[in-house]
Amino acid sequence: MTRTINRSTLRRLNAQLSPDEWAEFLADLVDTSVLKEALRIGQDTSAAETVHIWVDGLCSNNGQPGAKAEWSMCQALPAGGWSDQEGGPVPDHQPQTNNTAEYTAVIMALQQARQLRGPVVIHTDSALVVGQLTQNWRINVEHLRALWCEASQLIDEIANVTITKEPRDRIEAVLGH
Fold first, then answer.
1. Which end of the chain, N or C, is less surrounded by CB atoms within 10 Å?
2. Does 24 have pLDDT greater than 60?
């Protein structure tokens, strides 16, 4: 019986298993390419700190003609302080709504997180985005389904991602709007 184990599954297992359990898991592996990847991950002893990225989306005239949606994010730096804030408009081909902007902010943070090592926590004030991505909330709007798919794919690639709901005033305090 051949079983395929992807890189994100190996990372999750390595984080969840004790050193003895990890060694037992490795001993049970048959596929040498999986074994090599597992060994590389298991031997990676650098202590990666959790990365915190704060995001927000906003839209003036939400859902109305002439609406303009924008996203922003910044990262907490390990030594303290914050990275430069990044952001921009939601692409014109997307509906200009607050929820589109919230999803866009999370997607941009996930794209940045792909380049980082270690666990990532994304902080947002959007109950909808958190609920749909982490609690299986129903998606009733088609354009949000496409954004959910993109975000979910990125989450699967990164493997060690937490998306958490924060109070609006905390997001405002970090991002300054």
1. N
2. yes
Residue 119 to residue 3: CA distance in whole angstroms:
26
pLDDT in tens, 127-160: 999 999 999 999 999 999 999 999 999 998 887 8
Confidence label for 10 from pLDDT (cuts 50, 70 and 90): low
* Domain count of the fold of the chain: 2
Distance CA 118, CA 49 (A): 6
Beta bridge partners of 124: 165
70 and 29 share one domain: no
In the three-class reduction of DSSP (H, G, I as helix; E, B as strand; rest coil), residue 126 is classed as coil
Report which of 64, 60, 162 is spatially closest to residue 106, judged by C-alpha positions: 162
Instruction: Specify the 3-state DSSP secondary structure of 62.
Output: coil
Of residues 87, 73, 64, 85, the one with CA closest to residue 126: 73
Q: Are residues 140 and 97 in the same domain?
A: yes
Q: Residue written as tokens 């730096």?
A: 77
Prediction pTM value: 0.72
Return the closest-CA partner of residue 42 out of 65, 55, 25: 25
